Amino acid sequence: SINGASKQNKPIFHTTEVSPPNVPMHELSELFLDAMERLQKVALGFAGKEEIVKSISVDHPVKIYAIGDLHFGHISADGREILELKDHILQDPYAGVIFVVDEIEGWTTKYASTSTSGTHADAQQQIEMIKELLFRPLAEKGRILAMVGDYFGHPGWINDTSTIDPWRLMAQIPEVERMEEQLKMYDAYGLQIITNGALLHLDFPNGHRQSFRVFHYPEAKSKFDAVHGLREIAITESVETRPDGLVQGHIHKAAIAKE
Asked: What integer is the mean pLDDT of 169-173?
């Protein structure tokens, strides 16, 4: 009887089988840690690089252009001048480019009266056209050193609303042929994407190394000093570790300073 079972303090129901089988907590914890390690590797595989080295094959001075804030796709952007800039770079055999974001206008409903109303191409059209007009010609000649990605600027609007990575789409130029030994040094899409604030090293044949820290936009800003943000970053590094130069976009101003 129930009363009898209660008096004997023995349960009358016993679990004899479950499906799927129970997994001990220590095994679940280990599986979780293993899964996280694998997912971290996946995330790093898609993330921009924090530091890259470019070897220069000629013993000759080079000119590096930091280009950004073209806002291609917006009515205020002059597409013909962008083409002239591309041609100017290609005419110089010793010129290279670092792209510092906002190459396209992007798309958002947040700024309806400024960005959206003045943008007459959707995000996909902007990406495809900037690739064809600018990135492909430069990439075919090996002129693009790096592209800053993963930033909240105009392409970042696309990323925020869709989780689609516009920088990887812009860097996807599969027709650009590269030597087999170079393929492993690039991401799957041909052009190297770097993080905001990444280090770019240029190694010359004579053993000289020139280093830059590249931003779209460092957080510190000033209404009067265009390089204030870069200066604030520079003073946080010791002389021994400080790069030779710091580069940024975003401010829509041409400015240079030597400390």
From this structure: 80
